[in-house]
Each structure stands twice: as structure tokens, then as C-alpha cells.
Known about the structure:
Layout: H1 3-60, H2 66-69, H3 75-89, E1 96-101, H4 122-129, E2 134-140, E3 143-154, E4 157-167, H5 169-204, H6 206-221, H7 236-290, H8 298-329, E5 337-340, H9 341-355, E6 361-365, E7 370-373, H10 375-392, E8 397-404, E9 407-413, H11 421-425, H12 446-456, E10 460-465, E11 471-477
Parallel strand pairs: 6-8
Antiparallel strand pairs: 1-4, 2-3, 3-4, 5-7, 8-9, 9-11, 10-11
Amino acid sequence: MSIRLRLTLLYSAILALTLVIFSVALYAAQAQYTLNLVRNDLEKAAEPIINGLAHAQRDFGWPMPIPWIAQREGPEGDQAREVIQPLVRERRPRDLVRILDAEGNVLNLPMFSETANLSLSEEGLTHLKNGETWEEITRDEEGRLFIHNQPLIINNEVVSIVQLARSLADRDRSLRSLGITLLAGSALTTLIAFGIGWTLSGVTLRPIHRITETARQIGESRDFSSRVQHSGPHDELSRLATTFNAMLERLQDAYQRVAHALQVQRDFVADVSHELRTPLTTIRGNLALLQRQPPIPQTEQEDVLNDLIDESERLSRLVTDLLTLARADAGRKLELAPVALAPLVDDVCRQARLLAPERDIACTGADSLTVRANEDALKQVLLILLDNAIKHAQGPIHVKLDERDDQVIVQVQDSGPGMSPAIQQRLFDRFHRGDTARSTPGFGLGLSIARALIESQQGTIGVESTPGAGSAFTITLMPV
């Protein structure tokens, strides 16, 4: 079941329930109101009869109740009937009237012959004998009747009971019509609301359909440049579209980085294969020379063995560099601790001077700088930078220490031929070597290792170079 249908059914059900509650409350209120009108009307109608009988009783001074005397023959009976008849006749056009004795028996009077079927329950008679008013609803051939019973009390004694009854047929028909109207109106209103809700929910959920379609297209084409177009108000759907677009931007960036990483990996595998092939081919060829029969001369054997040693050492250095990069790629964390920078730089410069005693290598800067780093890894990075400067530049090399913007700066500057922007862009890629570097020994892994080690120490490394004006490698570290 779709969200659109669920939403439409939900608020249609809420509307239907609201209409049902409203209809039931309205029907019950109308029923009670009309019943109260009948009750009040009959109470008011009974009062003149009760008061008329009580006044006549006092005026004539009869010792017996007038209803009883009215059942006799003779002048007193005629006079009593003349008193009762106008009181009853006044209510006859609308209501049914009769008078009972204190035991609930209908007085035998011609005027009550039409109302002989009005009932009175035993419970009602008990209440009436106690001087209480009693009401009942009964049913006859024409419908329901509302019967009002009121006792006639003279000298604190119940002597008669006056009954007034009114048909509820008209009221019941009106209530029935009201119920049918409410039921039909509620059903029609719910049906119309369902149609309107279905249309509005479709319009409201249209951005979600667009998001779904965009996601489907992206899944099929893997084109993360697609975006959801939303021009509505800044509501929940607008925020959803904005969030979805932001997610697409992050996915696009991640996808591009993954694609780049896969390409770099393929290039890396290809470069490793190429770099390993050369020393292995040389080793295999030299071993084949040693296996020749008759054996090659002794002097040539010594040259072959020297070549084998050189290629083995070269292969060992390559494997060591690759292991260093593999550890960095695996996210291996270095143990960081406070490192006094000046003594470490002095030691590195001393080792570099031993490797190239003819070169001018100067180290300057503050002596009190301390950084949070790994001493061995930082020393390896500095040796890589100095080794590159020795290999690719002929002039002096300057190592500078400085503190700038709450960061410690280590800069290795040479006076070599410099690099073009194109070479600088790929300088830290694995196995990448500039045109001027191809004639020097190495694998093109040193700067890749340097960057991996510096980033493992929460630092950065970059280069600034101008063709013909030398290069400056800058390391940024966090001070302690």
C-alpha cells in the first residue's frame, strides 16, 4: 500500500470518525431536546387539570373526590362531570387524557373510553402512591406514546391520578429523517474528502516521486551529478530535497575519490610490476650467466656477482618503501610524543653532510620549538627531502625552522632547476618522477612516503617551486 493511499485513508478515516461522533452527538442532543419539550409541555398541561380538580373539591366541599363522585348517577354526579369535562376537553385535540383512582383503575366515565389502553406499570403506581410524578414511554398501533402521570393530592393523601399522553410518532419520524440525513451527509462528505485528499496528497508527494525517480536514474546510470529540482515552499519536503541533493554531492565526491583511488591503485600495481620486473630480469639474466657451461671467466663472474648484489639491494629498498606505504594506507597510527625539533634537524643535517660533504647544507631557526610527532618518522621525512635536494640540485640547501599562526614550520629549500606546475601537481603520486629526475636513481616513492608519514602525524606537506629558481618543501606540524 502506497504512502499516498495510506495518508488518504488515514485522514478520511479521521474525518469519518469525527463526522460520526458529531452526528451521534447531534442526534442524541436533538432527541433529548425534543423529548424534554414533550415532557415540559405535558407537565404544564397537567397543572390546570390538577388545580381545577383541587379548587372544585374545595369549592363544593364534597367529602369524596370529584372523580369518584363523577361516576355516580344524580345531581352530584352530573355536577362533578360538568367540572371535569371542560378540563379534559381542553387537552383532547393534542393529548390523550384520563383520570385514575388511587389504585390505578380508570374511572368509568364516557369521556375516557378512547383512552382505555394507556398503561401504567407497577413501579410507576408505587411512585405515584408516594406522591411522585411518573413518566413512561409505551407503544401502540400508531407508534410510541409519552405518558405523564401526576397524582392529585388532597389533605396529604393521593386521591386520584391524572394521565396525559402524547404521540411521539412525528418526533420519531423527524429524528429518523435527521439520522438518515446525517448518515448520508457524512458518507458523501467522506467520499468527497477522500477524492480531494487523494488529489492533494498526490500534489504534496510529487517531490518524493521526483526524488525516487532521481535515485532510480542514478542507480541505473551511476551519474551522481543529477539533482532533485524543487521550487516549492521551504517545508519538510524542501528540506528533504535539499538533504538529498547534499547527500548526492557527498556521494559524487566519494565516488570520484573512489574512482581516483582505483585508478591510482591500478597505476600503482602497474608501476610496481614494472619496477620489480627490471631487477628481477637482471637477476635472472645474471644467474643464467653463472650457469653457463663452460663457465664464464673469473673476472666476469665477479662483475655478475656485483650486479646481483646491487640489484638485490635495489629490490630490498623497493620492498621496504612499498611496505612503508602499505602500512600508511592501512591506517597504522604512529605513536606521537613531544619532540624537540632543533636537535632532530641538526642530526639530520649532520647525516646529510656525511652523504654529500661537498654540499653547503645550513640549518637555521628557533632552538626551543617542540612539536607533537613521531621522532623516527619525522627524521625519515627530513632525510627524504634532503636526499632529493642533494640529488636534484647543485647549489646550497637551507633548512629553516619557524613558528607561524600557532603552527611549527619546517622548510627545506634548494637552489635547483625548479619544477613546472604540471610536475608539482603529481609530485606526491607514487612512482611519479619528473623529466629531470629520470636520470637519477630511485623509484619515485620517497615523496609519497613523506606525505603519508606527515599526515599520520596530523601535519601537512606541500611544495612551492618556480622553474629556474629552486624548490621549497614546507612541513607544518602542531606545537606542544
